[in-house]
Amino acid sequence: MxxxxxxxxxxxxxxxxxxxxxxxxxxxxxxxxxDASQQPRAGRFVLFDSRRxxxxxxxxxxxxxxxxxxxxxxxxxxIAALADCRSAPHQWRIGSWxxxxxxxxxxxxxxxxxxxxxxxxxxxDAGGVWLCVSAYPFPYRSAFNFRFxxxxxxxxxxxxxFRAIRGREGWxxxxxxxxxxxxxxxxxxxxxxxxxxxxxxxHHTYRTxxxxxxxxxxxxxxxxxxxxxxxxxxxxxxxxxxxxGAALDALGVSHSGEFGLAYDDLPFCLVPGGPLQVPIHPVxxxxxxxxxxxxxxHGPAEAVARxxxxxxxxxxxxxxxxxxxxxxxxxxxxxxxxxxxxxxxPNVLRRVLTAADSLWGLxxxxxxxxxxxxxxxxxxxxxxxxxxxxxxxAAEGLPADxxxxxxxxxxxxxxxxxxxxxxxxxxxxxxxxxxxxxDRRVIPERVDRPGGLRARLxxxxxxxxxxxxxxxxxxxxxxxxxxxxxxxxx
Length: 490
What we know:
34% helix, four-stranded parallel β-sheet, globular, TIM Barrel
């Protein structure tokens, strides 16, 4: 790291007309930044995007960094790709099983790692430092949560799941579908006092804002009617569309999680000031059981044996995944369904929780607390200056309820230290660094959608049979076609 003759801080980075998507990547990473229009001399390094017009003026001692050069220089580079909200079918090859799910087309984590890794190299080459607020409260290096999507209610499975999580309820979050629990009388005492959110009323994500507002609002009021104030939302089937995002914003929902938009990443806001997205891992036990059911066998005994083998493979997969994400410093956000899956195979859930419990630096938390931490972290502002070989970190907005850690990077190695006061001084050589693995053993592969006119028509009209006929809207061509077809197939 070479020194420079300037008194300007190394951080924050100064942003001069860069894309909102890049700003949000820096928020995710915890790298301090400010806007050039408000604080032009706040930092030594000024980021601009040559594709967005001419750069502004520069102060003595400042260095320009063109992010277009890091983003492959094209108009359709990785930053632009982050605006893609579409999903596509993918599959994972896990041992002898091929599991499938529809997830986001864009791997946001991979884009963030590649783009900010290139930016980090450019800043270090120019004499800067890459220092960020840790993604987790100090001294943790990762976070764990298990999200239950309660689509329907089955007393036996529900009770089996709650026996499996006994004593570890504070590691879980529960998202309840209204229609699937409309006649349930017994789960509410179990759920009160836990982290509970809405899974909608009808188990479907609609293609209009109005229908999503109505469905989300009804699901929220359903839970309130049972003495539960829901926190957050989880989209049915993990589906996302801009109309759902607008409905979440209109209803003031604080956070949501749809793997059709993002998976295996840190939380982020898709639009400035919008609901916080909480990405999860999109593979669940149910996908393994579905893979077992797709195999051809002879008789019920073979079917049970295949399901038992699939459940064992799922447990092993999740155990490896937890360790892999922990070593990489990435969040471990898993999910599953009680009815017909985790409730039938509760040992899978016990093994998952035991694997998480074995890691001392893994923060076991609820989604609500994960979101509260993330909002507090977002308000922390750091300024980093250098005097000789010593660095000074000055902090503002430190929350009273959380211990803060900062990460100091040197190329691909990182050291974690505690930020326990408003000003901390350190020398990089005095820190203990580690190299965090970035390779993943199992990567989803994109597959083609089902072809044919019928499949395309179903997608075009948003065909589903979850919503009762009388609840299907009458406005819009999709609803009119859907109502007509539902009459024909009734």
